[in-house]
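Lab notebook: predicted structure, single chain.

Context: the supervisor wants predicted structures on file for every construct in the current expression panel, including those that have not yet been purified. This is the next one on the list. No modifications to the sequence; it matches the entry in the shared construct table.
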Amino acid sequence: MSGRPLRVLVAHNRYRSAQPSGENNVVDQETALLTGAGHRVSAFERHSDDIAGMSPLGKLMVPLRVPWNRAARADLAARLREERPDLVHVHNTFPLLSPSILAACADAAVPVVATLHNYTMTCAPGTLYRDGAVCTDCVGSAPLPAIRHGCYRDSRLATVPVVAGLALNRRRWWSDVARFFCISEAQRTMLVQAGMPAQRLSVKHNFVPDPGIRRTGPGEHLLFLGRLTDEKGVRLLMAAWDALAAAGDMAVPLVIAGTGPLEQEVARWAAGRPDLRYLGLCDKEECRELTARAVAVVAPSTWLETFGLVVVEAMAAGVPTVAAAHGAFVELIDEGVTGLLHRPGEAGDLADCLRRVTATPGRNREMGTAARRRYERDFIPAVGLDRLVAGYEAAISGAGSREPV
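Prediction complete. Output recorded below exactly as produced.
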């Protein structure tokens, strides 16, 4: 390719606005990055918020259109005829777009790249997590266990259209997408095990804009920032913190910011305790300030994170991270250099890492400095733009020579 400006159509089903979405943020940041670099970007979107305003019949039809939405295919076909983009970048198609949009791209001979933000290519809820533990029952096999366990929204009925979409469209995804962007090597490895074509899976880490604020002192608190769910390790963190508090080992408080299903439980746990502060949902500026004032950011996820924006955001602020030693965290965090890794699911080992990260301010400062260097090397917007455009150009140049999978 000559480095000319590209015409990119971004296809994305936006998540509900009531639920903070890192995926929505990534789509918006990539769009802004491409536009700022002179590329022409347009959006083909649906919004899950729109479901609430549908008629009863419309709501009833949503699950039936999850595997294949003819209207979405027709709408995208019209857009492709009108705009004639160089390629289409697909993010989320669930529930209002469906894989039918891939057929529209194939009909128009427009190459497709797709970012895989989770494990939905092999797991109905996309988490590889069930009943409080990592679950790989559907990896490399038909996703029938998902129906038996009601993995999507704890409902067998709700899981059926999701599984149908997986089963009916698997070959279409694999044949009609020129390149998949995985957001970590850990995710790529799992998806290759699931049978996806390795030659079309490349790793493109998410980038993080420079927050414009960095830690300048030793830090004031430990920080958990994210959704309050079991898979994010909230209950594990609570158990580890209670053990530390009982031993009188912590000189700084724990700050928790976020919302989710465990919000009331966390609020009751933190009420009246001087060693804890629960702040609820904070805006982006508040989150940046909280991160820059942290001794360390804590990410004790019990599920296999596909990336970990909170880790890279901490790096950008010059703050080390304490995280679970599995999933993408293992490749994001250099043990003992940019942060500490604890044994997944073990409250005692998490407590020990929290104790260690606060015990030696000089070592903590060195880890924060190293974390910032890693951010500048691998996760700044300029690096993200180069990798994104390189992936686009490879997909466009190879589109005419692809063989069916």
